[in-house]
């Protein structure tokens, strides 16, 4: 292996070593189901360790949800979605079919069990546990991404401009303070701004915004699809391979696992990592694990770079969307539609976000945009599942990252590598257990 593996807390981490024959599965492959950013990073970390890795995906590398996200390394975004403020806002948001949160009425009966779990996840004890787990995961994620960017030669794609969260009233600002206090407990830096300081951070804002919060440690990338493909090129340079295929079935025992492809052919592996995003729970169910994953359908429009001079990612939390300046355009998107993976897109939601953006940034040119919809795989407590299947140690789950797939991908790659190599985990994996439900 080449390149440095140093990071901010390297003294507490086990050094890389060549895997033993047992760990290699006596020459058998590690198969990764899913070519999104999670699967790509898992492949990179395993290939760096000298393991034999093949990624399977139905469309290609970083071609689906990981291609069109908001491009944020949201390391300060440690608050679970089921926090107190969001629970209070649900009735208001649901009243607006094009608002920050939408649930198609026909989908509500299927969604109800997940919503009940989501509501329960907001209880004080569970909220604190999820908050602590996410904070630890984010600390690891930042260290691992910075190292991976260096090793893969992709650090020039990193942008360290911070983020600006915006409030339209004193009441909205005050409602945010408990969340900022929670972040402060974990050492996350920020400062509240108004007046000239606010205008200086983003010229041309509508005067409707009376205050903001600037987070200097927030980072974005030049383009998430381009970053994913570049990290994959690095994984390939370490020996990782790709096979375009849809996976129909997964089966396992204590000695290994098998994939059945759509064409009926079989692939065997010592380990299978399921990182198939919003489809992952369907494969987990074949192994006896019923994981309550739901799909947050997110929408955006990417405008030409000339649409408006946005200096950093702008977060409109009261409206559930962000605006991100990319190398490839200006991305206006976000919001949540809890509607599963079968329903056709409702691009009226993209149009509604763009209309709001025009009001918030007077002078924004809305022409020439490209609309997109992606599937965020979300669990009720906002914490992903990282760990082995109930029936077999040969199948490892790595999914359910919700809005934070890009952010937590490198940390997930390290954790999966540690599991496969039998090393001590960098974080306590109990909060991420697939069996916690």
UniProtKB/TrEMBL annotation:
Q: Which SUPFAM superfamilies match?
A: FAD-linked reductases, C-terminal domain, FAD/NAD(P)-binding domain
Q: Where is the FAD dependent oxidoreductase domain?
A: 29-417
What the entry lists under InterPro entries is as follows: FAD-dep_OxRdtase, FAD/NAD-bd_sf
**Annotated keywords:** Oxidoreductase
Q: Where is this region: Disordered?
A: 1-23
Q: Does the keyword Cytoplasm apply?
A: no
DNA-binding: present as a keyword of the record? no
Superkingdom, natural source: Bacteria
The protein's name:
FAD-binding oxidoreductase
């Amino acid at each position: 292996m080449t390149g440095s593996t140093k990071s901010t807390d390297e003294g507490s981490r086990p050094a890389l070593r060549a895997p033993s024959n047992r760990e290699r599965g006596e020459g058998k492959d590690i198969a990764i189901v899913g070519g999104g950013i999670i699967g790509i990073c898992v492949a990179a970390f395993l290939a760096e360790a000298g393991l034999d890795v093949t990624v399977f995906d139905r469309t290609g590398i970083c071609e689906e949800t990981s291609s069109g996200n908001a491009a944020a390394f949201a390391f300060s975004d440690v608050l679970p979605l089921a926090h107190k403020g969001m629970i209070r806002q649900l009735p208001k948001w649901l009243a607006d079919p094009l608002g920050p949160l939408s649930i198609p009425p026909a989908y509500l009966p299927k969604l109800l069990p997940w919503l009940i779990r989501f509501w329960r996840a907001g209880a004080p004890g569970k909220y604190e546990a999820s908050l602590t787990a996410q904070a630890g995961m984010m600390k690891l994620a930042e260290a691992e991404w910075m190292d991976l960017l260096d090793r893969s030669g992709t650090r020039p794609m990193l942008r360290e401009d911070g983020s600006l969260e915006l409030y339209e009233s004193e009441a909205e600002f005050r409602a945010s303070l408990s969340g900022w206090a929670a972040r402060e407990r974990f050492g996350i830096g920020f400062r509240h701004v108004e007046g000239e300081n606010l205008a200086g951070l983003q010229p041309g804002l509508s005067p409707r915004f009376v205050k903001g919060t600037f987070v200097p440690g927030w980072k974005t990338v030049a383009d998430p699809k381009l970053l994913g493909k570049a990290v994959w090129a690095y994984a390939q340079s370490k020996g990782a391979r790709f096979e375009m295929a849809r996976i129909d079935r997964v089966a396992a025992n204590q000695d290994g696992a098998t994939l059945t492809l759509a064409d009926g052919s079989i692939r065997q592996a010592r380990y299978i990592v399921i990182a198939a995003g919003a489809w992952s729970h369907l494969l987990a169910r074949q192994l006896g694990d019923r994981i309550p994953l739901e799909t947050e359908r997110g929408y955006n429009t990417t405008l030409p770079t000339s649409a408006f001079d946005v200096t950093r990612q702008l977060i409109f939390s009261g409206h559930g969307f962000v605006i991100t300046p990319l190398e490839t355009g200006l991305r206006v998107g976000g919001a949540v539609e809890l509607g599963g993976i079968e329903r056709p897109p409702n691009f009226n939601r993209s149009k509604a976000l763009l209309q709001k953006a025009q009001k918030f940034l007077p002078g924004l040119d809305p022409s020439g945009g490209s609309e997109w919809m992606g599937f965020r795989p979300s669990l009720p407590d906002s914490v992903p599942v990282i760990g082995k299947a109930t029936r077999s140690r040969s199948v490892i789950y790595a999914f359910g990252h919700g809005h934070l797939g890009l952010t937590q991908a490198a940390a997930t790659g390290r954790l999966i590598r540690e599991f496969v190599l039998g090393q001590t985990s960098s974080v306590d994996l109990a909060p991420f257990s697939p069996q916690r439900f």
